[in-house]
Amino acid sequence: MSYFPSLAVFFQIIINGTFLGTMYGVAAIGLSLIFGCMQVLFIAQGTMMILAAYSVFWLVYFMSIDPLISILIIIPVFLVLGWIMYKGMFQRVSQAGPSSTLLLAFGLMVFMESMMLFIWSPNIRSVKTSYSTSAFQIGDITISVSRLIVTVVAGIATCLVYLFLKKTMTGKAIRGVSEDRVTGMLLGINPNRVSAITFAIGIAMAGVAGVATCLIYPFDPYFGFLFSLKALIAIAFGGLGSVGGALLGGIILGILESLSSYTISPGWADAIAYAAFILVLIFRPQGLLGKAADKV
Amino acid sequence: MKQRSILYRITIRCLFILFIGFLITGCSKGRGKEIIIGSHLPLSGPGGLVGLEQKWAYDQAVKDINDAGGIYVKEYDAKVPVRLIAIDDESDSGKAAAAVERLIKKDGVELILSGSNGAMGVLPGMITAEKYKVYYHGTLIWLETFLEHKFKNCSLYNFDMGQVIPMCFEVWNSLPKDQRPKRPAIFVEDSFDGKMMGDALTMFAKKFKYNVVLHQSMGLGAKDFTTQVIKAKSANADGIICLANTPETVTLVRQLKENDVSFKVFQGFKGTWPTEFYKSLGKDADYILCDGFWSEDYPFKGAKEIGQRFFDKYEKHSTSVGLYYALCQILFQAIEKAGSTDPVKVRQAITDNEFNTVNGKVKYDGRGVALYTSGNFQWMNGKQQNIYPFNLAKYKIKAAPPWKKR
Amino acid sequence: MLRLNQMKVHTKYIAGLIVVIFFVLCPLFLNSERSYFIYFLYTTFIYITIAQGWNLIAGYTGQVSLGQHAFFGLGAYITAITWRAGLTGYFDPLAFLLSGTGALLLAAIVGVVLLSKLRDDYFSLGTLGIGEILRVAALNGGSFTEGAAGISLNSTAYKSMNHYYYTALFIMLFTLVVIVLLIRSRVGLALIAIREDETAASANGIPVLRYKILAFSIGAFVTGLCGSLNAYYIFHVHPPGVLSLNWVVIPVLMCILGGAGTFMGPILGAFVLSIAFELTSIWMPEIHPIFSGAFIVLVTLFMPSGIMYYITNHKSMIMRRLRLTVFKWMNQKA
Fold this sequence. Notes:
CATH topology of chain A: ABC transporter involved in vitamin B12 uptake, BtuC
Mean pLDDT of chain B: 89
Strand order of the largest sheet of chain A: 1-2
Number of helices of chain B: 13
Structural class of chain A: mainly alpha
Strand order of the largest sheet of chain B: 9-8-10-11-12-16-17
Mean pLDDT of chain A: 88
Strand content of chain A: under 5%
Helix content of chain A: over 70%
CATH topology of the largest domain in chain B: Rossmann fold
Order of helices and strands of chain B: HEHEEEHEHEHEHEHEHEHEHEHHHEEEEE
Distance between the termini of chain A: 36 Å
CATH architecture of chain A: Orthogonal Bundle
Radius of gyration of chain A: 19 Å
Largest interface: B-C, 53 and 53 residues
Structural class of chain B: alpha/beta
Order of helices and strands of chain A: HHHHEEHHHHHHH
Shape of chain A: globular
Oligomer: heterotrimer
Radius of gyration of chain B: 24 Å
Number of helices of chain A: 11
CATH superfamily of the largest domain in chain B: Response regulator
CATH architecture of the largest domain in chain B: 3-Layer(aba) Sandwich
Distance between the termini of chain B: 83 Å
Number of domains of chain A: 1
Shape of chain B: globular
Strand content of chain B: 15-25%
């Protein structure tokens, strides 16, 4: 404990790490779902988040509604968008193997980034709310209101997706296809329909993450790529394909970054995160938390 | 089998046709009586914010000179209009070099107006221009870097590290003694500029007898600065000099406020001057300082007008368009004085003459370097108020009250 | 049948030879200091080399690496550091060799660790991490790598574009020859066997790990050479420049676009993508990234396995259409 001047500082760092990690985690959930069901590394996830953030920006700007309420509009829109993207593009391409879908995702990323650049200009945009910079104190620990809201929203979203996968027939079908596509087909599940639903949910989660982004950060069209990278690490921590694991993995990553940034140096924090990521991949490829066959 | 070989031949023929097409496009050079000036700007990528203003200023300068009939060139004995070819370098050093290659080789440009972004744009641009002995009319790169490469075909019109760093501390010293910060913290991003500036800041702080209590780096694109904020709090820092991009700086300021860490002076570089910075923070951005290349309040001819034109177009104030406009003015005047568009003659005219611009009088030295004084501004009610250089500034710096007293 | 086969091989070789001779002669007809075409070829050669290096490990062996920029950057840094220290000079073969070997060693070490443990997407993610770690290490390398400021090299040493052009051409030809020899040999068969079914390959006595590392290292070696050449070209080696993800993404795009796991694929892909990028940025300077993105999306949609597969699968149809078009065109002329 000699690294930290006091216990309060230690807890403060843990809490800040958790808040940061929730951002990574909420970006990772959709990625993890899509990967689990289709073996697609959808690296445009971060860019989808920024697209959602810009949509929120417009909703706030033109209709002056609270960004939190805009979730109710963003989620259905992005569900439909995800469905269309799967039916129009990924269904076709996914037969050609993972490298082609990776290429498609990359192409989409470049395309959307430049479309956003064209529509909204490279100037940064931001959404200001009454709670943007407010915080409250518990003892010596400061808690940021906007980040707390994001954490709660992420928690709720994860729970809903988790319940959907556990309780509904469609959710069970998704899990079945994720575990074994061929057996799923033998049992009469239409893998394309299931994949489309999963993809739609994944994109909708990017929408939720986008709302979270614009609550906390100013953004420009290129703001999302780092989230995609960090989300990849998060899902490796949590176990590829697991939903709860993705959020937890993100939080672990956030805490790891905060701690190493405080104790060593902010410059090395990234390297430490990546090194931990590779170690996890090597020694616990099922994720830090998962059992080998447990995919949710 | 036979079909395949035919296919093979046809593919190769197609490739040949494409090559020949490229040879033709590659060989086509600009012709006719106009002066072609090239420029590579970060129109997309993270530098897009800067590139947009720069392109606007270049376009205005070209429009103004063409409205006046063009530049009188002795070689042609006529007024010749100017055409600007501005291409995108995607804020990437490799692409910047490629962009300059294209300007020189495809468009046949022999005079290049500066790109942006220092090591990510201007430096590779200058190195490439130097290779083909094309004149590069540069700005926005550190003098040290410029001299290190011993450029013979480039020039530099920029502010100097030896001026801009002392500027921070001089501005601090202009505050009443009890309001001055005593324990400055330095936050710099992990980039070329950040590294250069961080080193220089530490050096000059000692000279001005400021004891730097904290030196932290900020990752490019990092999303959380709470650890830096906590360290600033425990080091009890009361002044900050921060060099980072706009999104990072906004995040930092928001987290400073959340954690109730107040600074008497927040000197921002690079990230704090855009109006979007103010829009993202609103009133919280008041009292924050930003560097700026130029001010529309300067008493030079045309300064007010160009600032007004920018405001009419974008409804915001700029602290940089004047520099880019002045850069064009220098080049146009030099072409007229050289009486030619030959790169060597133009550069000679640059070093030989004195120029009148919206950024004051400019005189280059024998190395092809002209330095101007960088300005310093303070955000107040949505406008960057000019506080430095002291002789031109109409406004005086105010120390920021703590967050709770605002 | 045998005769026909031989003839086909001969025409291939002759066609290849003609193209190579054309490339070798190009600078004699064009002023390389002023010809954009030469520069265009130079960059395309570099991309082809990196794409072929990636093709060997990903296309033939089936291990998708996303860490090629690490080898590229390492090559550039080794060249810069040895030159700054006075150990090597400008366009020093030793520097190239050191850079290539450095990248090869890194690949071997990384390969032993990652390839033995990770498969499929896990390996991709792991290599991506390696590249990022190297970037952070270069950023924090102190006076050894000069951190974010990067290493400035003596740009007055520049002499002629021809040096760059011929070196890039040589590196590319070297890579192509190595790959042809490798693929035609037992090693190539083993690599493809690993891609198709690793367990079966290992059951048949193929030392899977050794071959994977071999393919990975050779790919890294040529990528390191390219990094070295780029350091000599750009004269300023800094992390966002040489360790940029561009150096993995663009070659990978080219390779997949052309057809991974084929010899002509990366070559074709590199030319098509470079030309497409060039033309869009010339014709539509304002909105060129939109078209670059849309181009990639459209190609993956309609040729998801790459151009080469499309050509081989639709050979007769393409031929028929080509003949028809040529026929119509000639009729119109007449």
